[in-house]
Amino acid sequence: MKKFGTIGIPMHISSFNYSDYFRSSCFSSVSPFSIIPKTLKFCPVYPSSMPIKRTMNIKNFACFSSSAVDNSNTTSSSIDAPLQIKPKLKPWLLVGLGNPGKKYNATRHNVGFEMVDAIAEAEGISMNSVSFKALFGKGHIGNVPVILSKPQTFMNVSGESVGPMVSYYKIPLNQVLVIYDDLDLPFAKLRLLPKGGHGGHNGMRSIIDHFKGSRDFPRLRIGIGRPPGKMDPATFVLRQFSKQEREELDLTLQVGLEAVRILLLQGINKSATFVNSAKRLEQLG
Asked: Is-contact 252 108, C-beta < 8 A?
């Protein structure tokens, strides 16, 4: 009897079948090698007198399973799994509609601007950049990238700003939230919908036109109420708020801010439920 290599397994040279030994060794509890290179240059159990193939690829031997190889210094993920790269998140575009200029500040038609300003202040997003005919800023809400925008094109042609911005950043329409005033909602009431028409709002009509007729984008409507008596709606929307209305609107903007956070982080269903809940103010604490 003679021992070959360092494994110390006795066998007769004349009867040694190295193929069978490979199979039996590899399925035993002890691996024949402490370290197995990808390409084997020699086998320690072969007698030097035997005519063997000096170079063998490990793939030729099915016995080299994960149970037979010492993987103490490696992990299966580092060997088998490809490098996982997380896809870059597309930003949300949050657009508030209004008219530019001091003349229109704090008017009913500009509550969309005010909502975006409230989001920017709460989330620490600067709105000092100018591009795509808009004041805009970039930041995050939670881990979600956002672009805040206040088109400076005047309300009725808002699509001239929003359309090109969406195209440039390749933003899916279901991630474009348009925030605007609504005469048909009671004052300071919010309504969040995943899609819909323009409802006679010229700013929304312009945006839909620049989206090639698509209405499949969410919108947050802020109620400004109906004009009193026979007042022309065009005049009414350019009026400022009374002191009492301002206090009530400020609370509504806080609710809107929370609704936007829920929308981006938890989805539109939960956000819409929050917006439409009678207890939403209590939820804000």
From this structure: no
d(CA 220, CA 101): 23
Q: Is pLDDT at 14 greater than 70 in this prediction?
A: no
32 phi and psi, to 5 degrees?
A: -70, -15
What does the pLDDT look like over 127-152, one tens digit per residue? 999 999 999 999 999 999 999 999 99
| Short-list 207, 208, 236, CA closest to 223 | 236
Q: What is the pLDDT of residues 56-92, one digit of tens each?
A: 444 444 444 444 445 445 454 445 556 667 678 899 9
8-state DSSP, 173: G
Partners of 193 in the β-ladder: 219
pLDDT of the residue at 277: 78
pLDDT class of 278 with cuts at 50, 70, 90: low
**Cα 165 from Cα 159, distance rounded (Å):** 10
134 closest CA partner among 168, 96, 107: 96
Q: Which of 36, 30, 126, 17 is nearest to 74 (CA)?
A: 36
Q: Give the pTM.
A: 0.69
In DSSP notation, 50-112 reads S---S-EEGGG-TT--TTTS--TT--HHHHTSPPP-PPPPPPEEEEE----SGGGTTBGGGHH
Determine whether 210 is an active site residue.
Answer: no
User: Which of 12, 109, 201, 210 is labelled catalytic?
Assistant: 109
Question: Alpha helices, DSSP H only, in the chain?
Answer: 18-26, 76-79, 111-123, 159-169, 202-210, 233-236, 243-266, 268-276, 280-283
Query: CA angle, 52 as apex, 46 and 58 as ends, to 5°?
Result: 80
Rg, C-alpha atoms of the chain: 34
Tell me the C-alpha distance between 222 and 182, whole Å. Answer: 6
